[in-house]
């Protein structure tokens, strides 16, 4: 039987062992005994599962769309980068992870009594099962429909200041019209790479990070969070959860392009578009005009 070895385990590759986050498909894959699974609370339900991928996902590897994943620390600029990518590829379709948060009073939430606040920084705070189903459904369409997202300002928690910032970004002058026949799906969210399914299906992955101080200063200025942050929430929850997620899913992962969130937007935007264009030409050469 064919099996899949998923996410951050030691896998036998040829004659050696390698810690890897990729998905390996083989009939004689061996898991090394005593692997050091450095799991975090964020990835608790997504680590190192052996699955027989038959059933509803059996054709999933043959996606007819190019999938972009944009993630990062809170207030790091991931939504802004997503909007800029929509400007370059206006026909892309977008799925926002923030749209899948459970209601504030949902019993599935983990509540932190010491700061009187729900922990919204972990995967269990979101209906990831539904998000994954929505992504699978979109990618399994026989004839993917090109999206029409407009300016993309409907992103959850996107502030007016972010819109003003976008309006002042200089165009990078990259003509993407030759790629317009390539259907694109953009996934945006702070822990999308904590889902092995979403991670594996992304053709291009971008992650924006910040120092703790810069992140705190930006977060303190945000007014769109409902409910608002309580005293101590950043120190007790936001930053520890981000650190755990980064160390287990992002750090030293060659499959993710990490950007400093303080880098000029034009530079990050341009580099991202160039990488996406190059990868699209490899995956869908027959669709490039």
From TrEMBL:
| Name by which UniProt lists this protein | Nicotinamide riboside kinase 1
Which superkingdom does the taxonomy of this entry point to?
Answer: Eukaryota
């Amino acid at each position: 039987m064919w099996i899949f070895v998923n996410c951050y385990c030691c896998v036998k590759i040829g004659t050696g062992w390698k810690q890897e986050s990729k998905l390996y498909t083989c009939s004689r894959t061996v898991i090394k005994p005593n692997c050091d699974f450095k799991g975090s609370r964020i990835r608790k339900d997504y680590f190192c599962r052996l699955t027989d991928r038959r059933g509803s996902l059996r054709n999933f590897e043959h996606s007819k769309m190019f999938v972009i994943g944009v993630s990062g620390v809170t207030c790091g600029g991931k939504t802004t980068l997503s909007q800029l990518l929509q400007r370059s590829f206006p026909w892309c379709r977008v799925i926002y992870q923030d749209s899948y948060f459970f209601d504030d009073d949902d019993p599935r939430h983990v509540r932190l009594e010491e700061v009187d606040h729900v922990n919204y920084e972990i995967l269990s705070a979101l209906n990831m099962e539904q998000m994954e189903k929505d992504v699978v459904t979109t990618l399994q369409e026989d004839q993917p429909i090109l999206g029409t997202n407009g300016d993309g300002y409907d992103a959850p928690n996107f502030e007016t200041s972010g819109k003003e910032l976008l309006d002042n970004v200089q165009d990078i002058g990259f003509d993407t019209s030759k790629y317009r026949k390539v259907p694109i799906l953009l996934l945006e969210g702070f822990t999308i790479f904590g889902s092995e399914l979403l991670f594996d299906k992304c053709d291009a992955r971008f992650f924006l990070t910040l120092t703790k101080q810069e992140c705190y200063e930006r977060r303190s200025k945000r007014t769109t969070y409902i409910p608002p942050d309580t005293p101590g929430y950043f120190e007790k929850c936001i930053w520890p959860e981000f650190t755990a997620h980064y160390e287990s899913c992002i750090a030293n992962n060659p499959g993710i392009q990490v950007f400093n969130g303080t880098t000029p937007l034009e530079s990050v935007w341009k580099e991202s578009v160039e990488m996406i264009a190059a990868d699209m030409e490899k995956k869908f050469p027959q669709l490039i005009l």
